[in-house]
Amino acid sequence: MNYLVTIDSFKGCLTSSEVEKAAEEGIRRADLKARIECIPVSDGGEGMLDAYLSALGGRKLKVRVFDSMMRRTDAEYGICGKTAIIEVAQVIGLSAISREVRNPLVATSYGVGQILSHAIDKGCNTFIIGLGGSATSDCGLGMLKALVDHFAPGKCFDDIHLKHLRFILACDVDNPLYGDQGAAAVFGPQKGATKKMITLLDRRARTFATMSAQHCGYDDSGRPGAGAAGGLGYAFMQYLGAERRNGIDLLLHILDFDHILRHTDMVITGEGKADSQTLMGKLPVGILHHAQTQHIPVVLISGQVKNTEELLRAGFDHVICINPTDSSLVEAMKPEVAKHRISDALFQFCSSK
Known about the structure:
The protein is built from 14 helices and eleven strands. By secondary structure, the protein is α/β, with parallel strands linked by helices. The strands form two sheets. Strands 3-4-5-6-7-8 form a six-stranded mixed beta sheet, sandwiched between helices. A five-stranded parallel beta sheet has the order 2-1-9-10-11, sandwiched between helices. Helix 4 crosses helix 5. The radius of gyration is 21 Å and the shape is globular. It starts with a strand and ends with a helix. The model has no long low-confidence stretch (mean pLDDT 94).
């Protein structure tokens, strides 16, 4: 059997590469003669930098920047030729902020502007930005401020000439900037926002969008993805002319994924939690759609599974939950436990074939 293992990270637990290594170990135990290819993947969130560098080549650079709480931190980004690959979660990631200090009213995207400035100074003219896993809800104001501070201190954003640069947003979020489906209402709670904070954040976003539309003569606040990363997607679109691409579709295009599939008998994909939301443009369903065109069976593995019948109807041939029903979340989130259960799940599945 020729297996293609391409699994998203189990957020807060294992990276894409770590999940795939555990899956490979389980398949290998069941079939010593199996040919297994592992491809790290990401839809634009955590692990995006490594996934894109694996596909494109290039090198990592480390930069001293501010995190979302304006604390000094080291962040990495990638360069391949004149293309910069920036994973927002590396700079202003929510996972780097302990729950007791999370505050979306003060969290800032300033560090993203710093890392952009560094890449521009290095001669990059194309930027692939992974929007996901951010701790911010500042509509990208912090990023814009950092760009002004670097390129035109004491002046305004209009004095910065960045229109010749190309910005591509890797993002699986369709939300607008504000409103019931906006950045604050949908993503604010996971970033520590109370109901009162959400109301204030949404009002801030509306005000910023209104002022920006009056200034620019157009309004990108309603575009799909404007609400990504706490409105950072909006700032990129409104002020930097960014284009949004579905994160997994962009990566699969770069990989020439359809060509890779020609030599595959079975695809193993997955994510930390699989449910009906998986079918709304998330990574596993992007993999599924490509495999279906070549009639290749796809197995979905996950740490938590809901809506199994809906997932099977969508085309997944098998849906496997790696954790027993009586497992606690704390136990399941332990990296070594997760690795062991992934390996065992794939061993049992492949042994039964």
